[in-house]
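Data deposition worksheet. Section B asks for the primary sequence of the deposited chain exactly as it was used as input, without tags or linkers unless they were present during the calculation. Section C holds the resulting structure in token form. Section D is free text for depositor observations; keep each observation to a single sentence. Incomplete worksheets are returned to the depositor.
Section A, Depositor: J.P.
Section B:
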Amino acid sequence: MKKGIASQVFIYIFVMIVIAMILLFGFRQVANLRNLSEKSVYVSFKTDFSKAVSDAYYLNKGSVLVFDKSSRNKPLNVPKEARRVCFDGGVVNFNSEIYEEFIVDHLQGNGCINILNGKLSFRLENIYDGEVKVKISSVGT
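Section C:
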């Protein structure tokens, strides 16, 4: 009888170890899924922003596109960790180690725009200064 009880203890220990491993694996996968979701928001922002600059580039000189909650073009979603987006010429930077900076053709801008509620509101203006450029600024300016 004692031999049967001893073998049952090992079965219970083995089951507990398997359950712990399944839970650990599950938590890791949920964390990876969250990171993947944030990276997809970043890629989506990158393509949508580049398209918006391209659209503004092909408009008439002096044309303005506003991306704000009260305009026809809604603000763009950005990753949750981002607090502001900075522009230096055509370089767009989140000031984050996670998200790489990227270059947008024809963009002109110096400075940063703060992000509100995970959305970036901005203004694009087609300007001509010897060549056509798209100037970015915050909505209020």
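Section D:
The longest helix spans residues 2-57.
The mean pLDDT is 88.
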